[in-house]
């Protein structure tokens, strides 16, 4: 064993495992929140059959056909996001306050003075449809025979016989650029997290018999998805309403993360009197740090209809195509370490100048690719009781047809296969009600329930989860629930709406994938339960003319 410690800067044109998104990344970037005007949110977003609200431009575009006057409106929100991360040993809590513009829109209504097609309407709106802000941190007091290093070794061995020389840097050789070896394997080998065995083509991790220690992680996510909608629609005889919309999206996501282990009696690489490295027992302290910035823009199409057979009842249907994105990732990963042999005859293995260069091997890259999110379909019903009560219910289905391809349109079929293995369609139920106390004052309430997008087998360590680059961690969302209340007041042509929305979402953070051998669990995935509770206060103001 003869390792070269060197810093490497790497450029574009990298293999998929280096920087393009994996299935777990696609699912993370494809999620959507309940977001829109205060009236829309206070009624749980159950507007597929209602329409007549600026949020319908990115929900059911047929809702624009309900308008009989023009409108302009602005929505602001203040959110308090609480995230609690729990393991058997540690519970960490993080709190963050976010101020944002949820929605801004305009609808122009044009009276054609025609009994058959009385109105033609046009609208444009901006909405923040997803927010990624979240902090998760925690640790494990006992790794129970599990180690990231052993997972990386198993993953490296699964790639076939890889000579250790192929993971070392030479004068004209950079393994990141000049091989198809997974980045995580290269990074771990040059950081002594995995070691080559006597055959020089297979690898082992730091965890062995008698090894024990602790693990720790922290992940900071931030970013958003903004959507700009242009919608056209109208109605036929005040019975049939239609609409078509184009959505232009802007996505920006950043993740800062680290994972570290502190192991005793680990199997580490060390040398004696300047000789070649050999495997001895000792203490292993290492940290894997990562940064990922995903950004891009895309577009989608929306189609919708609303049918009102009688004034007291409406049925709505909308279909959203996938959003097709052009994406760019900027990526960085590194390891810093210190290995101390139990036998003092061996030298401590650490960087020569740890204070100046604690990272043994690092990489920065950029990568362009295409991404496709799932399609969505929703159906809804709404009824009017008397002259002052509205009730509505929506059902939405979101598929799992996510994919990623290179800039030439060649689909990464292994990622598409992973999507089908890990994920399933998502079912969402939305309920809303409005009670008109006076002609000016209305009270509202809503509820939303969304199922988990993750298949049971994947959630329960039943399959290996593949990730991209050198980020081994992933998060699986469970069910999500929203409870909302609100009120609205009209004064001549002006209106003011207020909403309070509580969101609860449970997730599971996994430090790295489980290892399965012949379909049996060989090493479990260290995990933490994540509970996110959001309290959002929403204010909308607008003018109808």
SSE diagram, text form:
Elements (H helix, E strand, L loop, with lengths): L15 H4 L3 H8 L7 H5 L28 E16 L4 E21 L7 E13 L2 E7 L7 H11 L16 H4 L4 H8 L4 E2 L6 E2 L7 E25 L3 E31 L7 E33 L2 E8 L3 E18 L19 E12 L3 E10 L3 E10 L4 E3 L7 H10 L3 E11 L4 E10 L5 H4 L14 E18 L2 E17 L4 E3 L2 E4 L3 E18 L1
Antiparallel strand pairs: 1-2, 1-22, 2-3, 3-7, 4-7, 5-6, 7-8, 8-9, 9-10, 9-11, 10-13, 11-12, 12-15, 13-14, 14-16, 16-17, 17-18, 18-19, 19-22, 20-21
Helix pairs in contact: 2-7
Walk me through what this model shows.
The protein is mainly beta. Helices cover 10% and strands 54% of the residues. It has 8 helices and 22 strands. Strands 1-2-3-7-8-9-10-13-14-16-17-18-19-22 form a 14-stranded antiparallel β-barrel. It has a two-stranded antiparallel sheet with strand order 5-6. A two-stranded antiparallel sheet has the order 20-21. Strand 16 and strand 17 (441-450) form a beta hairpin. Helix 2 (23-30) packs across helix 7 (413-422). The chain is elongated, with a radius of gyration of 27 Å. Mean pLDDT is 91; it is low at 1-19 and 353-363.
